[in-house]
Design brief:
The structure holds 2 protein chains of 2 kinds. By secondary structure, chain A is an all-alpha fold. Chain A is 78% helix and 0% strand. Chain A has 12 helices and no strands. In chain A, helix 11 packs antiparallel against helix 12. Chain A is globular. By secondary structure, chain B is α+β, with helices and mostly antiparallel strands. The two termini of chain B are 47 Å apart. Classes of the chains: A mainly alpha, B alpha+beta. At the A-B interface, helix 8 and helix 9 of A face strand 6, helix 2 and helix 4 of B. The structure holds adenosine-5'-triphosphate and magnesium ion. The site of magnesium ion has 2 residues of chain B, from helix 1.
Chain lengths: 285, 359
């Protein structure tokens, strides 16, 4: 026992080293948030103050960005999972193997193509003269093109697409671990396919779903590229705000305060989700 | 629980192909109402495939599954009224023991108070009443399988299917559960099919045993008939008969054939007869061979003892004549005579249990 913990000390030391660098850097960044902005070329000057936090928390537009980031991320995560569950099921259980392989391939390709490539692809697809709108107007389904870009719908779609591989890959493991006999038992006891899915399969998947939710939610919260490119300045998430304050306004302390507030609320919301998830798991079982 | 009105099951030319591989081929089978039939056979012979087709988890390629004369082969599993018990228990992990057992009744829309009553009875039947509030993960393997059994029978199914239900349990527990399972099945009178590759279990539990080989039934018989008189070499070997002899027919009538064994003639009963001069195979269990003194007047094979071991209930003799190796067992406790290694003896084959194998 003592021996293994000895050895594990050495094994985790590289991780600890890296973690401590990050903590130091982040701590320094957080420290700046307690000082006024300095003249160009410096980061901060003067005596400690909470002014930056009042600016972040006090303004209605700042609050709006914070809450829309949290809310939209959560909603997008739910949609992602709703799409990912059937995909994972098909990949694991398709009778014809090539069906599963094809979906895997499609996901792997999106996963490996970079963020900018993907954002650009969505611009082509979702624009007013994009492929989707051309199809819809030409076939007469809609009269005027639907506006996807520069609002939440385009940003939501592209973030969902970005999150999908993370969700599917995580859920594949969960679906693989399902024992098919349990579902068969339900069927032979008189449950239809639908009933079996909702009363047996989903509750058994629940722990996996919750892990996936927390994972994709955390990734969604940090979205930066998609709101920037497909939101065109109209849709802003926290990361965009922090970026602007750092590199457009050069107000590092203000950016730092925003980042700290964001980090705290992100942790709080993730904790809340896990807490509620545990309650739901308990209630279902 | 009162006994059920039992159903009959008939399989007609049942066939299952996976791509081009025939896992089950033209299988015909009758299971009389209220009886327990065991599918016995080596791994991969198609036992589970048959069971899963009956349950409706696998589509049949061709053939019919008749329950009380009605073909159910295209009916969805949830409308088949079949209770199934799996090797890995397959309890619903997120439900208590009680909810597990109640699930089938709930699906059938049974009234709440009747549900409670029937769940209570079913749990009492498998002695699990005291653990009704536990979750499956808090139960031992044996306990889980009892719950699974209660869950399957509480819906009063037409058929009970058991796929190696005791396969995951240790030997001691398995023996205990075997007798419980047997009592329960007899008491309820549910027509049942059991899959196992443990022949002792099959012999103990079954009314009938079907030995399968390569997707076909090799022999269907009562346990005793199967044990005493295996009809084919495959069945004899599978049931562990060590004495399978290649031989030639010397004389034949409609009721018996004479074959040559180690240069000596032996009479074996048959109901078909066999061409004189043709080769054939003979099977006989060691305990159906009596080891006698060489001067014994009865007909038999004279051989030399190569080894003798006293093992618990039996004395195991390994004998040899010409190229022929013969194993014979004598009851250790009741037989007073002991034969020594190197001694010449007469091996008397019990004609009622010496079988001319079908080829
Ligand atoms: N989905 C499948 N695709 C292709 N072949 C299969 C499939 N399922 C089973 N088989 C084959 O069909 C044959 C019968 O399988 P089955 O599971 O019925 O055997 P079994 O008698 O139950 O064996 P065991 O005692 O090991 O459980 C085997 O040779 C197996 O390889
Ligand atoms: Mg099997």
């Amino acid at each position: 026992m003592a021996k293994t913990s000895d050895r594990s000390k050495y094994l985790i030391s590289p991780a600890l080293l890296i973690a401590s660098f990050i903590v130091v850097a982040y701590g320094y960044f957080a420290l700046t948030s307690f000082f006024p902005k300095g003249p160009p070329g410096t980061q901060f000057v003067g005596t400690p103050t909470l002014d930056n936090y009042w600016r972040v928390l006090g303004s209605g537009s700042n609050q709006a960005v914070l809450f829309s980031t949290l809310g939209a991320s959560f909603l997008i995560s739910l949609i992602t999972i709703a799409v990912a569950v059937p995909m994972a099921m098909v990949i694991v259980r398709a009778k014809r193997e090539w069906v599963g392989n094809l979906i895997m391939l499609a996901i792997a390709v999106t996963f490996l193509s970079g963020g900018v490539t993907r954002a650009y692809s969505w611009l082509i697809l979702l624009g007013n003269r994009g492929l989707i709108n051309l199809g819809l107007t030409n076939s007469g389904i809609v009269d005027a093109p639907i506006r996807f870009l520069y609002n939440w719908s385009g940003v939501g779609i592209s973030i969902t697409h970005y999150l999908l591989p993370f969700a599917v890959f995580t859920l594949i493991g969960a679906v693989r671990n399902l024992n098919p006999s349990v579902e068969e038992a339900a069927r032979s006891l008189g449950a239809s396919r639908t009933t079996t899915f909702w009363r047996i399969t989903m509750p058994m998947l629940l722990p996996g779903l919750m892990v996936t939710l927390v994972l994709v939610y955390s990734i969604a919260l940090a979205s930066f590229l998609f709101p920037m490119l497909l939101g065109g300045g109209k849709v802003r998430m926290i990361a965009n705000q922090i970026y602007d304050r750092m590199f457009v306004e050069y107000d590092i302390p203000y950016a730092a305060a925003t980042a700290v507030v964001f980090l705290v609320s992100a942790f709080a919301s993730i904790w809340l989700i896990s807490f509620v998830a545990k309650k739901i798991e308990k209630a279902v079982s | 629980m009162e006994t059920l009105k039992s159903s009959t099951l008939q399989l007609r030319q049942l066939t299952k192909k996976y791509n081009n591989f025939e896992a089950v081929r033209d299988l015909d089978l009758n299971v009389p109402s209220g009886s327990l039939l065991t599918l016995l056979g080596p791994s991969g012979c198609g036992k589970s495939t048959v069971l899963r087709m009956i349950a409706g988890f696998l589509n049949v390629t061709s053939g019919e599954i008749l329950v009380d004369g009605k073909d159910i082969s295209r009916v969805e599993p949830n409308f088949r009224d079949i209770g199934m018990v799996f090797q890995n228990y397959a309890l619903f992990p997120h439900m208590t023991v009680e909810s597990n057992v109640a699930f089938g009744l709930k699906m059938r829309g049974v009234a709440k108070h009747e549900q409670a009553e029937r769940v209570r009875d079913a749990l009492a039947m498998v002695q699990m009443t005291h653990l009704a509030d536990r979750y499956p993960s808090q139960l031992s393997g044996g306990q889980q399988q009892r719950v699974a059994l209660a869950r399957a029978v509480v819906i009063k199914p037409k058929l009970l299917l058991l796929d190696e239900p005791l396969g995951a349990l240790d030997r001691h527990l398995r023996e205990g559960l075997q007798s419980e399972l047997r009592d329960l099945q007899r008491q309820l009178g549910i027509t049942s099919i059991l899959v196992t590759h443990d022949q002792d279990e099959a012999l103990y539990l079954s009314d009938y045993i079907a030995v399968m080989n390569g997707g076909c039934i090799e022999q269907l018989d009562t346990p005793i008939a199967l044990y005493d008189r295996p009809q084919t070499e495959f069945v004899a070997r599978f049931l562990g008969v060590p004495n399978i002899f290649a031989s030639t027919v010397v004389a034949s009538s409609s009721s018996e054939v004479t074959v040559s064994l180690g240069g000596q003639n032996i009479i074996v009963p048959t109901d078909t007869g066999k061409t004189v001069g043709s080769s054939c195979k003979i099977s006989v269990r060691p305990s159906h061979i009596e080891v006698a003194r060489s001067e014994d007047p009865r007909q038999g094979v004279t051989a030399v003892i190569k080894s003798a071991h006293e093992l618990g209930e039996r004395i195991v003799y390994h004998c040899e004549v010409a190229d022929l190796k013969i194993e014979a067992n004598a009851p250790r406790i009741s037989s007073s005579e002991r034969f020594a290694v190197g001694q010449s003896v007469k091996l008397v084959l019990d004609p009622a249990h010496t079988v001319l194998l079908r080829d």
